[in-house]
Amino acid sequence: MNLDTFIGQKEIVFTLKKALKNPFHAYIFEGEKGLGKKLLARIFSKHILCENKSSCGVCKSCHLFDASSHPDFKIIKRQEDKKEISVESVREIIKDLSRGPIFSDRKVFVIEEGEELSTSAQNALLKTLEEPPPYAIFIITCNNIERLLPTVISRSVVLSFKRYSASEIARILSQNNLEPKDYIIKLCKGNPKITLDFYNKEVQNKRDYIFDKILQYDGAGFGLIKEFESEFEKFKNDFEFLFENIIYFLRDALLYKKTKSIELITNTDKLEKIIQFSNKHTITHIYRLLQDFMVLDRYPDANVVSENVLDMIFLKLSGG
Known about the structure:
Structural class: alpha/beta
CATH topology of the largest domain: Rossmann fold
Oligomer: single chain
Number of domains: 2
């Protein structure tokens, strides 16, 4: 894949193409998770390091890059056993920079999830951003730019990634040899990662599990709640997935209850379950549940305070 075949983010791709001959020393690719920031960072890096500046796939630099052995390309990210990217990691970058390029005329460093840089790491990086060597290029991918120091941001070109159109999502699915499905394109909210995740059997199994549990709900099913609780561990790191699936299901049930039409339903692959739930409950009851879960969906730091959120969910499901 190269800049010409990358799908979406047209304005950003255009900017990067123009920058190939004379790139800036630091870029921040910012936006929500799943919009292709890491992929585009790699593609741009390959272009920069390519002997022909075209990601030709033929030159020695491209071969080294494709083999993940290019000496002038480094990816820096948080280690799994660490809470943040340490200042030591940044010092390693600075040490590496002092040696200059080995093969290409540039050295490219991609820092993934830059918001995970510690404050001291950001301050150490700042010194290099203020006076970078002429061959140094930094690309910082970031899901939450507000956690970066303003001084780091001000010394970088910020490129903000946007959600994709339905047609772009369909093209990405075709590119991955997947059949575009209308309900998935609606549910993914223009996010390629969410889209591709829907084709994962484990994700679909979780979705089926959630819908089956909702369908069993009778307004005061404490037994159901205890059963839900016993298997809730699988969602402790993904409350957003849980909440969004419940919200979309309840929204569909409410729309069907009010209109008796399936045209506005998003989960078109689950029509039978939605209709069954809708027929089982009143409009007022479904609406109250929908409102409750919409509040829970906005609960701050849900992944951190999972037990508190879990208690709230059980309370709502039991009619509390």
